[in-house]
Amino acid sequence: MNNRLLYFAAAAAVGSSSVACGGGGGGAGFRAESPGASDQSSEIWFEESATAAGLDFHHVAFHEQRFWMPEISPGGVALIDFDGDGRLDVYCVQSGDPAEGAADQEANRLFRNLGAGAFEEVPGAAGAADTGYGHGCGVGDYDGDGDADLYVTNLRANVLYRNDDGRFTDVTAESGTAVESWSTACSFVDYDADGDLDLFVVNNLNWSPDIELVCRSGQSERDYCSPANYNLPSADRLFRNDGDGRFTDVTESAGLSAGTGIGLGVALADYDGDGSVDFYVANDSVPNLLWINDGAGRFTNRALLLGCAVNGSGASEAGMGVQAVDVENDGDWDLYMTHVRDETNTFYRNRGGSFTDTTAATGLGGPSRRMTGFGMGFADFNHDGHIDLWVANGRVDLWRPFPVAERPYAEPNQLFRGLGDGRFEELAEGGVRGVRPGTSRAAAFGDLDDDGDVDVVYLDWNGPLGFLRNVAPRRGGWIGLRLVDAVGSDVLGALVRVEAQTGTQYRQNHTSYSYCAASDPRVHVGLGGVPDADEVFVRWPDGTEESFGALKGGRYHELRKGTGR
Fold first, then answer.
1. Is a pLDDT exceeding 50 seen at residue 248?
2. Which tens digit of pLDDT belongs to each residue from 259-299?
3. CATH 2.130.10.10 placement within the chain
């Protein structure tokens, strides 16, 4: 079925009538008053389960603290079914020592999901035990053989690992995807809609030890500098998949070299509704970038013109994690990103292709001002039909008082319950009890125990891996969707419209949102007070659309391209 208008026509039709996640296309969905407390604000939604599950990993940011800029931001994690058994495994990106040629570097590690909430370490990370100074990672089947491949971003040399039946091989050199700089986020994406996955890599400063400065806190203690002190932004990179195992660097010809930044996060979506995927880059202390895809392989940065380069006050913020999300269920993609303390995390509402900073109206502004956010993700954790939000926090500078005396960069993570009208309320203690604040960075989201709800895996800087198993009281039905091609590979960038008696909801299955992480490629939708979906539509990256009809809830469905109607 080749009818691109179907998705957009439906979006316009439900813009003011969607019940599942509220508001619709008008301004009434966002009211300026602060969300009030509810009888759910003290509920326990998660149980810390890393130790019990066998996920024993501890991140190392340095051997000798030098207060170099790259030391303060690393820590990546990916959810990847590397062995094709249908269960999400966990890949942890280690850092170690940022000094070039440092001895005794720690390696990245991989944990196999055994089912029933248990994991075991895979020796040598199945060939992906990189020892670079790691920051993040991305997952996607770039060679179309049905195995999930892996790209790791590092301070100096990134690595592409090809997966062949559960074993990884470093193919960076032969594939043409080498990046010798400081890379952070990355994402596999079919930007040219030719059926194979290309690769977008976000870069940070043009850094070397020679540029380092001595900075101090307000109490005259040695501390990390702001990236704005360096004034050395860099360009991101785009690699086109040539279909033969090799990539071509098309950064310049695609127009992406026209803009630079201090990149930390990336969120992919069709922001202007023209059928082509666009790239949004969250930059640290300089204006963000919104690369609009013209559908012919060229990109233009329109962030300033469209209202999402700076916040509503005209100020650049310290962009960290970011996600494209349709909070109002009006069929277009809003943006939410995390920032440092004394800034708010920012919500940009998409008003048909242009953006407005509506942070205050969501209730997310005030609670975030005292925190420094990194990884984050929207999901319907309790199945009430309204998407919720989990945020990983951790400081990047010293300021008093310290929440934990012996851990000066630690901050508590946060959980926000979606109220269904575009507003959110914070739940006490992040919805989990007995967890000491850490300095959290990457966060990935997915159903690790296959019980139908979304769990959280996060990594603390210079600290342990965390696994929050979802135990939230369920307030409705749910449905899970895996979108695949003819060989069974996840089709990243597909859009989903789920219609139910409680309303219409929109999702997409890009995995590289949040911060330096890769999440579950499956789409999860809470259905609220009904058990099943009345109809499920998919728009594939090439623009074709299919209906898969009514689908039963309470289970995962595999939707194969070309088998709908």
1. yes
2. 999 999 999 999 999 999 999 999 999 999 999 999 999 99
3. 46-477
- Cβ–Cβ under 8 Å, residues 278 and 288: no
Instruction: Determine the 3-state secondary structure of 444 from DSSP.
Output: strand
Task: Using CA atoms of 1, 547, 336, 524 in order, give the dihedral in degrees to the nearest 10.
Answer: -140
Q: Are 355 and 307 in contact (CB under 8 A)?
A: yes
Vertex 314 angle, CA 308 and 316, to 5°: 70
CATH fold of 46-477 reads Methylamine Dehydrogenase; Chain H (2.130.10)
Predicted TM-score (pTM) of this structure = 0.93
Rounded to the nearest 10 degrees, how much is the dihedral formed by the CA atoms of 167, 168, 169, 173? 160
User: pLDDT digits over 10-57, tens only?
Assistant: 444 433 332 233 333 333 232 233 344 456 778 999 999 999 999 999
- Classified as helix, coil or strand, 418 is strand
Cα 86 from chain centre? 21
Give the separation between CA 290 and CA 387, rounded to whole angstroms. 24
**Residue 245 predicted with pLDDT over 60:** yes
Cβ atoms < 10 Å from Cβ of 42: 11
| Per-residue confidence band for 183, with pLDDT thresholds at 50, 70 and 90 | very high
Q: How many helices (H) and strands (E) does the chain have?
A: 6, 38
Report the 10 Å Cβ neighbour count for 6.
17
Answer for the pair 159, 183: CB distance below 8 angstroms, yes or no.
no
Tokens of 516: 């330096």
CATH code of 478-560, in short, is 2.60.40.1120
